[in-house]
Structure formats: C-alpha cells, structure tokens
Amino acid sequence: MTTRAAIPVPATASATSRPSAGLRGFAWGVVAYNVLVIVWGAAVRATGSGAGCGDHWPLCNGNVVLHHPGVATLIEFAHRASSGVALLAVIALTFWIFRTTPRYHAARFWSMASLLLTLNEALLGALLVLLGLVAHNQSGARAVYFGLHFTNTMLLLATLALTAHFLSRRLGFMRGSTEFRAPLLASVGLLATLATGVMGSLAALGDTLYPARDLWAAIAEDFSSHSSWLLRIRWIHPALAFVAGAFLLWLIIRNLPGGNAPGNRSLALVLLGLLALQYTLGFTDVALLAPVWLQLAHLFVADLLWITLVVLAVRTSIVPIGCTFGTCGFRSKKTAE
C-alpha cells in the first residue's frame, strides 16, 4: 500500500536545500557518541556502580569536585559527565538545524524529538538514583523504571539516527514530499525489535542481580517458581528475538536485490551481518553466564543493529514522491560516477 502526504511540497524543497557536510557529519557524530554513552551506562549497571555517587543528583556524593573517589564513584561520575556532554551536543545539533534548514525540513522534527527524549533520559536517570533504584536494589520498581529508561534510550537513538538520516537525504527530506510504502509492517517490525531490546535489558538486570553458578542452574532458575520474576521472564527475550528477526529478514530480502537502490542493498548486507553477530553474541552470553565485557559487546552490537534497522526501514517505507532512491533519493553508484 502506498499513501502520500497531504501537505504540498514547499518551493524550497529542492536538492540545493541539502545541509552542509559539516552539519551532516556532526549529526552522525552525535549518534556515535550517544552509542558510547549508552554502553558506558550499561557498564554502570553491570558493575553495580549505580550508587557510586550516593543518592545525590546531579552532584556526586554532594560534591562538585571528587575527593579520593573509589572505582564505583569514578564509573558513575564518568557516565554522568558523558551524559551531560551528550545533552549539550543534542542542544547544539538542534540549534544548528533550526538555523540552517528550511522550515518544513524533517530533521527539525526529529531533532526536537531527540532533545525532548534526551531531557527525559536525564529525568529517568535522576529518578533511578534519587529513589535508590541502583546497585543491588531488587525491587519491582527498579525493573519498571529500568525498562522505561531503556525504552527511552532506544527511542532517543532512533530519533538521532533519523535526524542524521534526513539531513543526509538529497530528496524526500521536506514535509509533504514523501509517500509511504508498507508503513504498518515496518512499524510492527520496529516495535517488535524495540520490545526485544527492552526484554533484553531486563534479562541483563536479572543476570546482574541474581548471578548463576553454572549454565544448568541458570536454566533451572528460569522455570523455578521460587526464582525472582526477573529470572522467570528471561525466556521472553530470545523468543522475541526470533520474532523480530523474521521482520529483519523480510526487510533484508526486500532490499538485497538492489535494483535502483544500491544504498539499500549495502545497508541490508550490513544488517544481515549485524543480525548474525548479535545472535552469536546472545548465545555466547547465555553460555558464559553473562560476563560484563560480553554484555557490553552485546549491547554495542544491538545499538548498531537498531540504528541500521531504523534507517533501512525508513529508506524502504518513506520515499520521495515518484522517485526510487537509486535515481533521485540518494546517491547511487551511477550518480557517484
């Protein structure tokens, strides 16, 4: 099914409206930096360093300057500092976009969404600390807030990726200049992938709070009525991973032939490689009882897969009116020559 936006394309929606290379590079740089911040945040959780600054926020143990900090304090403080830089980067990106792009440019919407989600990210992080839902806290409230925090993180990463993506488009970056192809299927697939990530974050939280002695003990805990509910829901993560994987394979197969969209084919191949690597890391993570380094690697690849998936899904489902990406939407091999 193909639907078109009802808003007419403004006269400024031409290829000459494409933002500068500096802005495009900065946008993708902000995406990359946020991935590193997210992975470091997982290190805070996996090492039990969430209480490294006590129950103070944004100050660390009530101080601006650290005095003889321990390892946990350094880990937590580094995450807070890097998160603060991320907020400043998103503010700078949004300001730059609104100063240099036309009024109906899609990047404006996504950059504002990114800014709001960044502020919400800070709020959720602060609540985790102020409510004491960190370190070895095993309450149900921690799992709820942690799930909300991770959901917000994934949505933030998606909006940042879409901001950079629409800044990089040659056409189809203005409101009213695109049409939608199979948007419902793409939306369901993205939601399934998001749900997989959220359940994975809860599984990782369970691994941190209730470390197992060996693999068979871990499997037994998943089905024991005496185990924490966090352990008894761990099976949902791999189950959803296979459901989401079916959508990813559909998207990959749809774009592998290439045709007039060689850029989509390249992204599909990258997504296929990341999907295979992610499944491998997932199985290895279970077999080795979730060591910290492997949890971080698993999350890092998950973030790369999510970014690639969001961009490829949008390139496939939101296209310039009357165009194919290989001829007028993106730089193709022929255009580059």
Automatic annotation (TrEMBL):
<keyword id="KW-0350">Heme biosynthesis</keyword>
<comment type="pathway">
    <text>Porphyrin-containing compound metabolism.</text>
</comment>
<keyword id="KW-0479">Metal-binding</keyword>
<feature type="transmembrane region" description="Helical">
    <location>
        <begin position="304"/>
        <end position="330"/>
    </location>
</feature>
<feature type="transmembrane region" description="Helical">
    <location>
        <begin position="110"/>
        <end position="131"/>
    </location>
</feature>
<protein>
    <submittedName>
        <fullName>Cytochrome oxidase assembly protein</fullName>
    </submittedName>
</protein>
<dbReference type="GO" id="GO:0016491">
    <property type="term" value="F:oxidoreductase activity"/>
</dbReference>
<keyword id="KW-1015">Disulfide bond</keyword>
<dbReference type="GO" id="GO:0016020">
    <property type="term" value="C:membrane"/>
</dbReference>
<dbReference type="InterPro" id="IPR050450">
    <property type="entry name" value="COX15/CtaA_HemeA_synthase"/>
</dbReference>
<keyword id="KW-1133">Transmembrane helix</keyword>
<keyword id="KW-0560">Oxidoreductase</keyword>
<feature type="transmembrane region" description="Helical">
    <location>
        <begin position="184"/>
        <end position="206"/>
    </location>
</feature>
<feature type="transmembrane region" description="Helical">
    <location>
        <begin position="77"/>
        <end position="98"/>
    </location>
</feature>
<feature type="transmembrane region" description="Helical">
    <location>
        <begin position="265"/>
        <end position="284"/>
    </location>
</feature>
<feature type="transmembrane region" description="Helical">
    <location>
        <begin position="143"/>
        <end position="163"/>
    </location>
</feature>
<keyword id="KW-0812">Transmembrane</keyword>
<dbReference type="Pfam" id="PF02628">
    <property type="entry name" value="COX15-CtaA"/>
</dbReference>
<feature type="transmembrane region" description="Helical">
    <location>
        <begin position="21"/>
        <end position="42"/>
    </location>
</feature>
<keyword id="KW-0408">Iron</keyword>
<dbReference type="GO" id="GO:0046872">
    <property type="term" value="F:metal ion binding"/>
</dbReference>
<dbReference type="GO" id="GO:0006784">
    <property type="term" value="P:heme A biosynthetic process"/>
</dbReference>
<feature type="transmembrane region" description="Helical">
    <location>
        <begin position="235"/>
        <end position="253"/>
    </location>
</feature>
<dbReference type="InterPro" id="IPR003780">
    <property type="entry name" value="COX15/CtaA_fam"/>
</dbReference>
<keyword id="KW-0472">Membrane</keyword>
<keyword id="KW-1003">Cell membrane</keyword>
